[in-house]
Write the structure tokens for this entry.
Amino acid sequence: MARDALLESNPMLIGGEWRGASGGATRPVLNPATGEAFAEVPDGTREDAGAALEAARAAQPAWEALTGVQRAAYLTRIARAIEADAERLARVVVREQGKPLVEARGEIGGTAGFFDYFASFARAPMGEIMPSDAPDEDIWIRNVPYGVVAAIIPWNYPAALFARKVAPALMAGNTIVVKPHEDTPLSALELARVCEAAGLPRGVVNVVTGTGRDVGDALVRDRRTRLVTVTGSVRAGREILAAAAENITVVSLELGGKAPFIVMDDADVELAVRNAIHARFVNCGQVCTCNERTYVHRRVFDHFLERYVEVAGGLRMGDPMRTDIDLGPKVNQAEVDKVDAMVARAREQGAEVVLGGRRPEGGEFGRGFWYEPTVLTGVSNDMEIMQQEVFGPVSPVMAFDDFDEAIALANDTPYGLSAYLFTRDLKKMMRAVRALRSGEVYINKIGPEQFQGFHTGYGLSGMGGDDGHHGFDHYFRKKTVYVSYGEASTEGMMPYTTPVAELPPQ
């Protein structure tokens, strides 16, 4: 039997129909731990993207017409179904993305959590009533859904980011077309099946697999798309913004990060070390909020570095399906090559590798996409390793002399997503909150971000944002309604003037 015949076949969902690509082509899904194909999905086309948008457009009016309580009931059923199938869904994430099973279980818990959280908006206010300058008149500012949303999601959290887009979009009364990343399409397809089993009407959620060049570009450029929501790289964000400009389509972007992790001399060093390790190496460093550059006060630098290297050196790599490992593989070979090239370039610029700095060898590491936990010292803030997002298990550590220098170093970046500060000094905490140019600031703790917060970035980290009521608001546009219920005359009114009521008698 030919090898391709052994691959699991996974059709995509368009308008309630599970189908292949219009052109008949498929693309493989690789297991990052082995580098081998184990499944295939349709290689969707622009025609498939158009069909999904049309299905979403047709389904949207009836979906919007439901009450918030009715839409929330669907979201709650989806959340319970995810929880009931959590272990299998977690293993799907591991097989296609490579993170350790323990982390994948946490991701699936968060996936259900997004649906539960946004279901809580069932009875939330949906607008404002403002006073008018005229008597017997109100001004209503209503929240109304955009209509059809296109969601483009990355590979690092393929299940949670599906929910992060789909749950608020649906709760707001929109329908949606999801394009998962080419490397990790299975989680989105499995969650679409969950949505279908929960009774979601046909066309409300659609998933089209394929490349960004074809499917993604078609979704963004189509006039039926009213809102594009993206989590991805800066490169992808720029391309999507340019494509959306043709129809002036609204775009929300959550892009990359270069988070600084500042450790002051009064910090609990052991606490800082443990948190810095987790914030750098979780999901093999493939998180936009990861600790990308660690700044440590010179007075505690040696102590911190010794413990940091010791703990990082004890991280266990191996089969991500095991529950006794800390790091799985990178998601694909291109990511391994990129990280390896960045470490090599850092060496050329004067950095010293004090841990790792290479691909592991032998045994299970002879195949798949692996890279060792790596710590660099001797870095300066102008090095590429300190300015460009690594998105991998590589941690440059640098000393500083005072608080003002640390803030200046942290802000010396075109990114602005997350920042971390460890100190016992309340004044420094409050100064950092004001001074750090970052959409999120964590003090004496790390993430992940919480459902009720607002995940937003500055600069190259994007515009718009996710989570909480501010993120929910991105799925609405405003409609202003002037309601006159009196009999006041409009005689003599001129365009663009405000009628003034007569003053009451003295």
